[in-house]
Amino acid sequence: MTAAGPAVPGALLIVGDVVTDVVAVHPEPLAPATDTAARIRTLPGGAGANAACWAALTGAVEVRLLARVGAESARWHERALVDAGVRPRLVIDREEPTGTVVALVGKDAERTFLTDSGAALRLCPADWTPSLLDGVAHLHLSGYLFFADSSRELALVALRAARARGVPVSVDPASAGFLAGLGPRRFLDAVTGAGVLLPNEDEARLLAGLPEPAGVARAAAQLSRRVPLVVVTRGAAGALVAERGRITAEVTAEPAEAVDSTGAGDAFTGGFLAALLTGADPVEAARAGCRAAALAVTRMGGRP
Fold first, then answer.
1. Burial class (CB in 10 A: 0-12, 13-18, 19+), 14
2. Burial of 32 (0-12, 13-18, 19+ CB in 10 A)
3. Cα–Cα dist 267/253, whole Å
4. What pTM was computed for the model?
5. pLDDT single digits (tens) 39-78
6. Fewest CB atoms within 10 Å of the CB: 20, 52, 113, 168?
């Protein structure tokens, strides 16, 4: 296990995933059974790690990350996180390699993921120590943790520990596809006690149990009866803020020339949390999240 030094009061602790991203940007549609020209890069990624890097960039005083990686790339990932201003605590898995995501990015900058979680979702309660919360002002849990038994148990341990200390908790649901597999009710039951939920439009509708044509505002308002603050990201349409059963703000997106939407939601999360920690109200924090997301889509990969 590699570990940073002592905590500084007011820290943001993110518990989540570190993965290796293979990003392929292909201007033309994929051609089955033959070659398709693409620009391909291997980059550090992972929803939790990406959010941590964006939070560090956009103003959080101290950002810490707990994640699990394979031995083959642990040093590379640790160095990338440290260089981004994050203080990583990486558990080295001796059985599985670091998770890998292949991101296929089309002409419209939208992405399709092929995901091998590898070591990322092998985080377990044994990887948690109460001292991780020393000096922490906010805990953020990547939703990917809830999609495997061991990492879900770790997330529950962390959430309970944070609540016992009075530390607020936020959760990013992470993946509509994985949510459907786990079940929306099971996910919502697991995140009971969190104060902030950060879904995208598809995740919000799925969690609220609403059909595709249903308005996302209705989904956001409904979810905020269960989690006090819900902020729904809407891509180029910006974000919706819902509090205790009603929509309180609609935040417009920042203009951007999109190249790759990989990590845009993670950038929003990082920008939002950094602003929240430095005293912004939810609407101001959502604007900060939109600014970070607009910057994220102008470059390949999910990191600053």
1. buried
2. exposed
3. 13
4. 0.91
5. 999 999 999 999 999 999 988 779 999 999 999 999 999 9
6. 113
